[in-house]
TrEMBL record:
The chain crosses the membrane at residues 173-194, 259-279, 313-336, 342-369, 376-393, 413-446. Residues 70-88, 460-471 have a biased composition (Low complexity). Residues 1-99, 460-484 are annotated as: Disordered. It is a multi-pass membrane protein. This is AI-2E family transporter. Keywords: Cell membrane, Membrane, Transmembrane, Transmembrane helix, Transport. Belongs to the autoinducer-2 exporter (AI-2E) (TC 2.A.86) family. It comes from the Bacteria. Residues 49-66 have a biased composition (Basic and acidic residues). InterPro entries: AI-2E-like. Its main location: membrane. It is found in: Cell membrane.
Length: 484
């Protein structure tokens, strides 16, 4: 009980000190507010009533074992005064150099370099994808080439199936009739060419030998001063080369057997694929659309029919143009009395499926046969006939029959034929140009489709009518059929 008065006294002393501090702070705030009107004011000292509690407080603190308490701002015994902390960090001096912040690394790269880098890595990815695709195609070259030829044959025969179905013929029967008739006609053409070549090979060989003798006599009496010894030396070298490479020729014959097997396999794959494309073409296309992502499915579904129309127009137009070329050149060869006029005309028809390059090769073959068998005059006349027919084909027939739908630049034709021949030989050269024409049609449609979607996404101006904001039809389509 003796400690209770001491505790109450210390509590009262603490409350008194707290009140004194509050009064001192209020006085300082009033002095700061009135600093502009009057001079600096000193805080009022403690009154006589406050001195007594402070004296009592000091006495209590001396009696208390806890030690004295030092007031705020004063240093106790044996302690050094603490430095005041600044209210804010001072500004740097005027002579200090300005340090600029480091720029963003992306902003430091020039715009042209960034664009070149973005295009470079995208081209690298595209080139790698094309390289992998070419390796895959090379691994299954026979299958890819057979299926591509089957698509071309289907594009040629499918209109016949459609006509038969419109006349009430069931789809299965229409497909079977068209398939059998188409491959019978193609087989007869191949058989006719082989038969004509075998029938006339002896005659042509004799005429070629006679032509070589004429060439030899011309060289002996020509201004080139070629001697008979030099001609015999060249002939002897050729015989020795043939004798030295007998093993290679034999191995080539064995490889020829393998080639025959591959050709037969390719023919069977082509026939099988053509049959099912004619019968189940729409179902196969719908199944293929399910493999496309949903976001791009609508655009691909619109591009497919247009690509098929382009391919059908190309194949039909090429067949008509090739038939006209073969007929006119064959008639010219017949009237000029060139041997094997009909087989040469069939060769011209087949080579016409290779644009530009095929016409040059078949025309050169006809000129060489006429030159060797009938002489220089006949060879020159055949050359005139071939050039005239090819000029009519390039400037009249192709623009009129093929039209703008399958127009491809000549540079693209030459490059595609060269690339196709390197990848797939003669078959690759045949299918290269139609694939390029189809790809061109698809790209043009997808570009117009994306532009149409972008116009639909942009809201029309205030007060715009429906006709003013309606999307336009893609190129090559009549108005009203532009919607996907």
């Amino acid at each position: 009980m003796s400690k209770l008065p001491q505790w109450v006294g210390r509590l009262g002393t603490g409350l008194t000190r707290l009140a004194h501090r509050l009064e001192s702070q209020q006085a300082e705030m009033r002095g700061r507010e009135g600093d502009g009107d009057a001079g600096p004011r000193t805080p009022p000292g403690p009154g006589p009533s406050e001195e007594r509690p402070r004296a009592a407080e000091s006495a209590e603190s001396r009696k208390s074992p806890e030690g004295p308490e030092t007031p705020e701002g004063a240093a106790g015994e044996g302690e050094t005064a603490r430095p005041e902390q600044p209210a804010s960090v001072p500004a740097p001096p005027a002579y200090a150099p300005a340090v600029s912040a480091r720029p963003d690394p992306v902003a430091a790269v020039p715009w042209g370099v960034r664009v070149a880098a973005e295009a470079a890595w995208r081209l690298l990815v595209l080139g790698g994808t094309v390289w992998v695709l070419m390796r895959v195609i090379s691994s299954v070259q026979l299958v890819v080439l057979s299926f591509t030829v089957a698509i071309l044959i289907t594009a040629l025969l499918e209109p016949t199936v459609t006509r038969l179905r419109r006349r009430g013929v069931p789809r299965g029967l229409a497909t079977a009739l068209t398939f059998i008739a188409g491959f019978v006609v193609m087989g007869l053409v191949v058989w006719f060419v082989v038969w004509q070549v075998m029938e006339n090979v002896d005659e042509v060989s004799g005429e070629v030998q006679a032509g070589i003798d004429d060439l030899r006599r011309w060289l002996l009496h020509s201004p080139f001063h070629v001697t008979e010894k030099q001609i015999n030396h060249v002939a002897k070298s050729l015989r020795e080369a043939v004798g030295a490479n007998t093993e290679q020729i034999t191995s080539a014959g064995l490889e020829g057997v393998t080639v025959v097997v591959e050709v037969l396999t390719g023919i069977l794959l082509t026939m099988f694929s053509t049959l099912f494309l004619l019968y189940d073409g729409p179902k196969i296309w719908n199944w293929t659309l399910k493999l496309v992502p949903a976001q791009a499915r609508e655009g691909v579904a619109g591009a497919g029919p247009r690509a098929w129309s382009t391919l059908t127009a190309y194949v039909r137009g090429t067949v008509i143009v090739a038939l006209i070329d073969a007929i006119f050149i064959g008639v010219g060869l017949f009237f000029l009395d060139v041997p094997m006029a009909v087989p040469l005309a069939v060769f011209i028809f087949l080579f016409a499926f290779i644009p530009l390059v095929g016409a040059v090769v078949s025309g050169a073959l006809a000129v060489v046969v006429a030159l060797v068998t009938q002489g220089v005059f006949t060879g020159a006349m055949v050359l005139i006939v071939v050039l005239a027919v090819q000029q009519i084909e390039g400037h009249v027939l192709q623009p009129f029959i093929l039209g703008r739908a399958v127009r491809v630049h000549p540079l693209a034709v030459v490059l595609s034929v060269a690339a196709g021949s390197l990848i797939g030989g003669i078959g690759g050269a045949v299918v290269a140009v139609p694939l390029v024409a189809v790809a061109n049609t698809v790209v043009v449609y997808l570009r117009s489709y994306s532009q149409e979607n972008a116009l639909r996404a942009v809201p029309g101006p205030h007060g715009a009518t429906a006709s003013g904001t309606a999307p336009t039809a893609p190129p090559g389509l009549p108005p009203g059929e532009g919607g996907a």
